């Protein structure tokens, strides 16, 4: 028992050190800060062998032979680099988000403006892809009233200590600050989620939602099986239903990082037709998300989250996916890229 | 009002025939009849049918826990009107 507590304490301290380092890097000139974040990522990928093995296994289980061994190695290295860069992104949201905003090119801004001109709000559909939470904050600081449907995982994860919860809460504070309303958090016993989102849309705001979130146990019955990453995944078509019920236009949104790791592109699509049958429409969306992930696999946050991949139905249940394994897997595995 | 709302929920939101006929006191959340999106459907219906506008603060689970609770909530929202006139 004492050993487990000590291991958890060590884990918390390591995470606190990582986040403190990110805060320091965010104060440096961007070129240097992100370069150092990449070095940090490389160091983590070499030393967190358990995380690396888990990533490699998940990549192999989901994508199979789609990636050559060399490409898989590159994806793993980039995954760690992107994780460290994303922490820096969050810390660059200070001063009204200007330090991050000047590194992000928003493409398709006109699509979002045109969608909002209709007066029914807009739904931005994304995935747990790249620095998506910081991307939503960049949009908000650019003048779009953004509210996110998503869970702040650290508020609910029983596997972390209260000290660690506090650390993550502090880390996420800049993200929370750049939202129009508090996150609309879907959890069992909160049936008002869609209605709250509809209220934001009625106020002509932007509601963001990641469609690749694993369904909660209570929502499994509503999940639909769709082709995703070459397999069948269980996903919730709520974004499409919300668009159909409210009349709000649905757009897709991806944030991806350039080869220099410091510049990013936030790409917003034109509105997508949602007037067809829900399942078929959602399948089209899922296919678009899937293609985006396959184009840039290192950007997908879930490679390090075996439990989420299991819940999505992408890989079979593994015996060692309990949160208690956190302390032995290091600071990246359980929480780094789980925004909401 | 009870009849109108019960009919709508029975027709549009209940997917398990074993739950029909639906009693006005049947818990809608615990039985799984009401999830997030079906609550939104119901809110849209109630706003159109009874001419009310529901804000964030009205969207409490207890206001939608049963047909009786929904009617009680609507009546409380419309103290000057006889809701039966609509339904």
Notes on the structure:
- The complex is a heterodimer of chains A (340) and B (87).
- By secondary structure, chain A is α/β, with parallel strands linked by helices.
- Chain A contains 13 helices and eight strands.
- Chain A has one domain (2-335): Glycerol-3-phosphate (1)-acyltransferase (3-Layer(aba) Sandwich), CATH 3.40.1130.
- Chain A is 49% helix and 12% strand.
- In chain A, helix 1 packs across helix 4, helix 2 (30-47) packs across helix 4 and helix 7 packs parallel to helix 8.
- Residues 321-331 of chain A have low confidence and may be disordered.
- Chain B has 87 residues and is mostly helical.
- Chain B contains three helices and no strands.
- The model of chain B is unreliable at 82-87 (pLDDT under 50).
- The interface between A and B is medium-sized, with 19 and 18 residues.
Reading the helices and strands of chain B in chain order gives HHH
Mean model confidence by pLDDT of chain A = 88
Given as residue ranges, the uncertain stretches of chain A (5+ residues, pLDDT < 50) are 321-331
Q: How many whole angstroms does the radius of gyration of chain B measure?
A: 12 Å
What is the helical fraction of chain B, as a range of percent? 40-55%
Structural category of chain A is alpha/beta
Question: Which CATH class of chain A is shown?
Answer: Alpha Beta
Molecular shape of chain A: globular
Largest sheet of chain B: none
Count of helices of chain A?
A: 13
**CATH topology call of chain A:** Glycerol-3-phosphate (1)-acyltransferase
Query: What proportion of the residues of chain A form beta strands (DSSP E)?
Result: 5-15%
Number of strands of chain B: 0
Mean pLDDT of chain B: 85
Q: Write down the CATH class of chain B.
A: Mainly Alpha
**CATH 2nd-level architecture of chain B:** Orthogonal Bundle
- Weakly predicted, low-confidence segments of chain B: 82-87
The CATH topology name of chain B reads: Non-ribosomal Peptide Synthetase Peptidyl Carrier Protein, Chain A
Count of strand segments of chain A? 8
Total number of distinct structural domains of chain B: 1
């Amino acid at each position: 028992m004492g050993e487990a507590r000590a291991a958890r304490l060590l884990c918390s301290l390591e995470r606190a050190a990582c986040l403190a380092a990110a805060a320091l890097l965010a104060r440096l000139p961007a070129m240097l800060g992100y370069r150092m974040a990449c070095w940090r990522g490389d160091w983590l990928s070499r030393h967190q062998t358990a995380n690396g093995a888990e990533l490699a296994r998940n990549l192999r289980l989901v994508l199979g032979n789609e990636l050559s061994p060399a490409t898989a190695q590159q994806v793993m290295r980039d995954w760690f680099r992107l994780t460290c860069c994303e922490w820096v992104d969050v810390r660059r949201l200070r001063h009204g988000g200007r330090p991050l905003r000047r590194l992000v090119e928003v493409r398709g801004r006109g699509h979002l403006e045109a969608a909002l001109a209709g007066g029914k709000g807009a739904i931005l559909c994304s995935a747990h892809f790249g620095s998506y939470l910081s991307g939503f904050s960049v949009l908000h600081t650019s003048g779009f009233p953004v509210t996110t449907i998503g869970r702040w995982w650290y508020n609910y994860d029983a596997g972390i200590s209260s000290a660690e919860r506090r650390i993550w809460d502090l880390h996420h504070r800049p993200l929370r600050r750049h939202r129009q309303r508090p996150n609309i958090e879907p959890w069992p016993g909160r049936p008002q989620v869609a209605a709250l989102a509809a209220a934001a849309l009625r106020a002509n705001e932007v509601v963001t939602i990641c469609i690749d979130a694993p369904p909660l146990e209570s929502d499994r019955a509503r999940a639909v099986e769709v082709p995703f990453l070459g397999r069948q995944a269980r996903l919730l078509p709520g974004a499409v239903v919300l668009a159909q019920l409210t009349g709000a236009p649905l757009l897709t949104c991806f944030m991806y990082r350039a080869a220099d790791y410091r510049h990013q592109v936030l790409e917003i699509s034109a509105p997508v037709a949602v007037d067809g049958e829900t399942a078929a429409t959602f399948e089209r969306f899922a296919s678009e998300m899937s293609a985006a992930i396959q184009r840039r696999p290192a950007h997908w946050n879930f490679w390090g989250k075996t439990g989420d991949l299991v819940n999505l139905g992408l890989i079979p249940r593994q015996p060692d996916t309990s949160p208690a394994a956190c302390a032995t897997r290091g600071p990246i595995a359980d929480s780094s890229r789980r925004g909401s | 009002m009870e009849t109108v709302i019960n009919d709508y929920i029975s027709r549009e939101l209940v997917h398990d025939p074993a739950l029909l006929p639906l009693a006005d006191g049947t818990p809608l959340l615990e039985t799984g009849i009401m999830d997030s999106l079906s609550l939104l459907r119901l809110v849209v219906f109630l706003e159109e049918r009874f001419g009310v506008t529901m804000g964030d603060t009205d969207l409490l689970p207890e206001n939608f826990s049963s047909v009786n609770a929904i009617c009680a909530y609507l009546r409380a929202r419309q103290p000057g009107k006889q809701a039966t006139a609509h339904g």
